[in-house]
Amino acid sequence: MLFGPPGAGKGTQAARIVDLTSKPQISTGDMLRAALLEGSELGKEAKSYMEAGELVPDDIIIGLISQRLKVDDAKNGVLFDGFPRTIAQAEELAKIAKVDSVISIEVPDDSIVQRIVGRRMDPETGEIYHVDFKPAPESIIDRLVQRKDDNEFTVRNRLKAYHEQTSPLAIWYENQGLLIKVDGEQSIKDVGDEIISKLSAR
Ligand code: AMP
Q: What is the overall mean pLDDT for the chain?
């Protein structure tokens, strides 16, 4: 499980862990964005929460995850990214799956806003870039998109939700001996190296 505030680099590091372990990445944020694009019932329910930077209600998220875990590719383990975000979600997860490791990517609040407002995505590959920290190649710059909730106002709410509802989970998992803390302010490669070496040392 990848844990940390919005903009910590969970999606970026997930790509490397998926390559290494061949386990599917399950990102509730990506699943909700896909539902929003499709205009499904789920998308309609989640839209206002996401646009306000608030958490989507637990029952919606838990329903989504229990369906996703029934898919064949989840049989040999998965990498959660952005889930669970509340103690209630973690408690439900504990009933249906065993958590091996929780990688907490630690980044102070001061850095988060700058990281998020500069974030861009290539819709063709899903690759995540940053205008300063990970510039995209010139040839694809015109097609990059910015997430609708990656603006300064929404980021403040997302950070508030993180501190109030999600960060208590770190202590919850630490008490279970599952939390691995990683310094998220290093280069993308160094964060990934630290994750891999700490995971292998377990
Ligand atoms: P993310 O892509 O992980 O930053 O998620 C984007 C938005 O989707 C969040 O700001 C929430 O509104 C919603 N979301 C994603 N995952 C969860 C979750 N596990 N619980 C509640 N809301 C979520």
A: 95
